[in-house]
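agent> call fold_tool(seq_1)
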Amino acid sequence: SITVLAGCIAGYLAFQPPVFYADLRAQQYSASEQMAAEAFFERLERDLQRWTDRSVALQRGQLSNTSVKTPLNAWLSDYDPTQDTHSVTVTEKHVNVQLASGEVIASRHWQNPRVHMRKDCLSLAVEVVTSRATCVLSLDLKPTLTPERRLHLDLVSARIGQLPLPLRSFLRWLPREVHHVGSGMELDLTAPTPHFSLDVSDSDPESPIAKSIQCSDGEVTIEFLAPVLKPQQVDRRTAPRAVSRRN
């Protein structure tokens, strides 16, 4: 009957991994590629910190020498931290090299996560392993930044293998209250749009501020705003540090 045929097709699709996952899962990375990916993320962190330190030094120079007229202070006065931005771009390969190392998720039931990046969307897939079967659960997530500086990953769709899951049915399996996933991440199914949420703000006034996040094919770009210091944050007894004119 049609019902039996539909059940057979659904069962078949449920155990076929998404095409993007099959390709990423089959990719093997060498030890040198893993080391290069680690070095890449370390360099991103250093560059972000160097840019932040430069902005803070420039502002300290501005706020510490407001009454002294020198060529340096005239140049410092031209610096506007509200117009100073820094962008960080992470590629799909860099993320998946890290995920393939096996250090991100250590669980018997959740294995081999991979991420696929495309325009305005992140697809996260992971093997779900039980004693009876193994299948791939994948979620399509749309990243946005809220005015409260929270990163939202809106849940757009879900699949088991290549079988689409009705979101309403899928959400029944998940906790209805706000659930703390770990590492500051929350799962909120009470909102009009179900989403994962991460607070990306920082209580340190000298930390950069995430301004925007943009997904495109194969990469994600996060743009940061420089921290803006207030006069009371500057120790006027401290001489300003040397700064570079280059960004």
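agent> call fold_tool(seq_2)
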Amino acid sequence: MTLRYTNHRRLFELPIGAWSAADRAQIEAICQLESWGDLLAAYEAREDTPDLEEWELRPCESVDVVDADSGEPVLQIHFFDFGTAYAFKAGTIEDAGGATQHGFELNADFDQYSAALRAAHRQADPKIKQHMDFD
């Protein structure tokens, strides 16, 4: 299987209205998991041109991961500062894995994608700024 990254985006440089429903639900799930409280609501209420320095989530880079042969979406991954990432089954808030301190692991149900995901991350264009170890 060959996977590739598509739709590279920096969500917190876009108005929330431009996000997909899946991105919105996944970021809300991450905010709940991390106890970031009203951070998303505060971001949504911001001015049109905020000073991104004040937003904890500003370095978030998001990608869709697709099966290169079928074009079917497999995962969506949100990469944050300090080697943290969250992976979801595409279009859902089902936890597929993630990274802490740069060590990326997929949950058992998604483990069949590990080797292909490692290759997709290395070949990503544009490159994801966060270094990830896919061991």
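agent> summarizing second result for user.
The helical segments are 21-33, 39-44, 114-123. Strands lie at 3-9, 61-67, 73-80, 84-89, 95-100, 103-106.
agent> awaiting next instruction.
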